[in-house]
Specification:
Layout lengths: L1 H14 L29 E4 L6 E13 L18 E11 L4 E15 L10 E15 L1 H6 L7 E19 L20 E4 L2 E10 L4 E13 L11 E15 L5 E4 H33 L16 E7 L12 H13 L5 E6 L7 H23 L6 E7 L13 E6 L1
Parallel strand pairs: 13-14
Antiparallel strand pairs: 1-11, 2-3, 2-10, 3-4, 4-5, 5-6, 6-7, 6-8, 8-9, 9-10, 12-15, 13-15
């Protein structure tokens, strides 16, 4: 519906293009009311990206400690032990589907050491194994969600949670022999050589942006298992493994998202309505001049109306704080280029403006210059218009062509 209304507005603008043509005594001007439609819109900025964008790879290393059957037959205990901390390594691959939500698949692995209370003596109480853990995890960018989207934010906190699988094998005691503390058996009444588990993981990632393509991160995570994870069932029914890691995140193509705001397009339609009303007022003035000439008989010789420095129909609108020509405005640049090609002797002035409610006067002056140059560059580089036929002018926010603030983010063409 909004697109159809835009076409109606453009057609009405085109219909008034003859307002500066020579006035003949026989011309009749009728002042018809213009119907302006009230538009409602959702002012939410939405983000999107191509499925090929916003992928990332992570590599990391750190330490972990299992919390399983704590203590042993001689020294039962509950505490974190630096002697049981081991190295762990990880690699991940994922994608941010929006500035707020992402997913990744992460693999972690290394050795595990723990005290086993089922061992008969202190020397054999220490058990060890190897494991690898594969997780599918959802990630939430907390700062983008709570503080607004910012692709250049230096520090972010990213909570995550996921589900996966874990394989643990090579169960040994401290001396390298088979641990006597294993009490999980297969159907042949032998200790399992590989223990399979379905752990749940959660944690926090603290991310520091180094450049567009590389981040450094520190991550604290905990994984929770069934009591059979280490082939030993004893005490608590849930085993856990806590890890602290650091590493680098490589953004493939950087992190960037396109934006869409429905109200930006509605404001363009409203701006066209404003231009239509301006042209109608000028057309009405021409009609009054014709009526005055008709009152003088015999009719004097028609006088060619001077249209030099008159505004042309085509304008190019911009979004707030931007000098990039929007796809919806490229047709106006094309129409201006076609007019210049059809009128090879004509020259035009390209004048840029900025709205006065945004930015300082000095900043807006520079922004309006960039907008005028962007349109001139498009005419020259894309459509082959000679730069000698173009004069660049910029008035910043010192001059406001329209009474509505948002309409003044514009470039206007006039004949030179």
């Amino acid at each position: 519906m909004k697109t159809r209304n835009l076409y109606y507005a453009m057609a009405l603008v085109a219909g008034t293009a003859a307002y500066c043509a020579p006035a003949n005594a026989q011309d009749v001007f009728v002042d018809e009311a213009t119907t302006v439609t009230e538009f409602t819109c959702d002012n939410t900025t939405r983000y999107f990206s191509n499925w090929r964008n916003n992928w990332f790879i992570e590599v990391e290393a750190g330490i972990n400690q299992p919390f399983v059957e704590r203590g042993n037959a001689k020294t039962p205990g509950d505490n974190v032990s630096r002697h049981k901390m081991t190295l762990t390594y990880g690699v991940g691959f994922g994608r941010w589907v929006s500035p707020y939500i992402g997913f990744r698949v992460k693999a972690l692995g290394g050795a595990l050491h723990w005290d086993n209370p089922m061992q008969p003596d202190l020397a054999n109480g220490w058990s060890r194994a190897k494991h690898v853990n594969l997780q599918a995890e959802f990630m939430w960018d907390m700062f983008n969600s709570l503080g607004g989207v910012n692709d250049n934010r230096v520090f972010s906190i990213i909570p995550f949670a996921g589900l996966g699988g874990d394989a643990t094998w090579d169960f040994r005691n401290a001396q390298g022999g088979e641990p006597a503390g294993t009490n999980v058996y297969n159907r042949h009444n032998k200790a399992k050589s590989v223990a399979w588990s379905l752990p749940v993981s959660a944690g926090l990632q603290f991310r520091f942006r180094l450049c567009e393509y590389v981040d450094f991160f520190a991550e604290a995570r905990a994984s929770f298992y069934a009591d059979t994870w280490n082939n030993s069932v004893h005490g608590n029914s849930i085993d856990a493994n806590v890890a602290v890691l650091g590493g680098f995140n490589f953004n493939i193509g950087g992190r960037n998202f396109g934006t869409f705001n429905q109200c930006a397009y509605v404001s363009q339609i409203a701006a066209l309505n404003g231009q239509v009303n301006d042209l109608r007022a000028q057309l009405l003035a021409c009609g009054e001049e014709v009526a005055a000439l008709q009152a003088q008989l015999p009719c004097p010789e028609p006088v060619q109306k001077d249209c030099v420095n008159a505004p042309l129909m085509t304008t190019v609108r911009f979004t707030i704080n931007s000098d990039k020509i929007m796809p919806t405005e490229e047709v106006n640049v094309y129409n201006m280029a076609e007019w210049l090609k059809a009128n090879p002797e004509e020259k035009v002035v390209i004048c840029g403006y900025a709205d006065k409610d945004t930015g300082t006067s000095e900043y807006n002056m520079a922004l309006s210059e960039k907008r005028a140059n962007a349109v001139a560059d498009a005419l020259v580089n894309t459509y082959g218009i000679s730069r000698d036929r173009l004069t660049i002018k910029y008035d910043g926010s010192d001059v406001q062509p329209y009474s509505t603030n948002d309409w003044n983010r514009i470039v206007i063409f006039t004949q030179k």
